[in-house]
Amino acid sequence: MTTALLNRAKAGDGAAFQELIDPFRRELHVHCYRMLGSYQDAEDVLQETLLAAWTGLARFEGRSSLRTWLYRIATNSCLNARRSESRRPPKEWDVPHVQPPEPTRLGEVPWLEPYPDLALAGLTIPLGPEARYEQSESMSLAFVTAVQVLPPRQVAVLVLRDVLGFPAQEVAEMLETTVSAANSALKRARATLYQRRGDPPAVTTPAEQDLIERFVRAYGSADIDGLVALLTDDIFISMPPLPFEYEGLDAVAGFFAAVFGRGRTVDLVPTSANGQPAFGAYLRGPDGVSHGNGLIVLTLRDTRICAMTRFENGVLPHFGLPRSLRSE
After folding, report:
1. What stretch(es) of the chain map to CATH 3.10.450.50?
2. Where in the numbering of this chain does the RNA polymerase sigma-70 region domain appear (predicted)?
3. Does residue 148 contact residue 33 with C-beta atoms inside 8 Å?
4. pLDDT (tens digit, 9 = 90+) per residue, 10-19?
C-alpha cells in the first residue's frame, strides 16, 4: 500500500480504493464464510464490509495495517449478522411423493452452505505464527458447522486467533475488549470445538478415488446395498436447510430406501467443496432432461464415507454447474 494510493482513495478516487482492497477481497470472503457458514451471507456481508471501508476510509489513520483494519470491519459486520434474527430458518420437507423416516435428530445449522473449491484456487492467506489449524481443515464442513453453534464473540476470537493467527492484542482491539476477556472467550470456544469437531478433509488417495467412483455408480443406479457397503458404522447424513439428520447404518439405509424407493434415479456431476469431494445431483426426468436436485458433499475416513451433506440446488451456480442436464 503506497501513501499516494491511500491518499487518492481518501480523496474519493474509487479506482484507487478498489486497487487498495482488491488484494484482500477473496480472503475476506473466506473469513466471512467461516464465521457465518453461508456462501450467500458471506457475499452480502463482504459487500457491507467494503461499503463501510469506503465510507470510513477517511478515519483510517494507519495505526494498524490496512488488512487488519479490513478484518476488524468484516468481523464486526459478521457479528451483527450472527446476532440477527433473520437468518435462514429450517425448511419443511418438500420432496414430492417421498415420506422420510423419523430422523435421528434435527440439525442446528439450517443456514449452512458449501464453499466451492474453485473460489479458493490460487488463494494464499497469510497466517500468523499462532495459527493452530491447517487452512484445509478450517474450511471443512465439519469445522464450519461446529463453529456455528458457538456464541458470536467466541467464533470471532477463535477464527481470528486459531485460524488466522492474529496476535491477542490485535484481536482484543478489533473486538473492543480486553486481552483477558478475549483469551477467556478463546478458551471456552476451544473446549466446545474440541467436543464437536468431526473428520477433517482427507487427501484423496487411489483407494479413496476408487471409493468415490463406487459411490457414483451405486448412487446413480439407486443401489442401496451397494451404497451402504461404502459407509462407516457411524455414517451421518444432513441436508440443510432441511433439519433432518440421520446417523448410523440402519437409519441411513432407511432414508435411502425412502428416497430411492419410488424409482428415482440421479446423475452425478463431480466437483469439490470445502476441500471435499462433491457432486451436483440431477434427477432424471422422463423427457431426457435431468433437473438439478442439489449438491452432495462427502466426508471420507479410512476408505469409507463417514458423512454426506446434501444442499439444495440453489447452490449449483456457485460451482459453475447448470440447473439441468440434457441426455445425449
Report:
1. 206-326
2. 20-88
3. no
4. 999 999 999 9
Q: Does domain 8-84 have CATH number 1.20.1050.10?
A: no
Q: 106 near 24, Cβ under 8 Å?
A: no
Q: Which helix (H) or strand (E) holds 82?
A: helix 66-83
Average the pLDDT over 128-151 and give the result: 93
> What is the CATH code for 206-326?
3.10.450.50
Tell me the C-alpha distance between 119 and 133, whole Å: 20
Helix axes 14-36, 39-56, angle to 10 degrees: 140
What Å distances lie between residue 283 and 122, 325, 328, CA to CA?
33, 9, 15
Distances in Å between the Cα of 51 and the Cα atoms of 1, 56, 73 are 19, 8, 10
DSSP track, 119-152 = GGTT------TT--S-HHHHTSHHHHHHHHTS-H
Pairwise pLDDT comparison (133 vs 85), residue with the higher score: 133
Give the pLDDT confidence of 183-229 residue by residue, as tens digits: 999 999 999 988 776 676 766 789 999 999 999 999 999 999 999 99
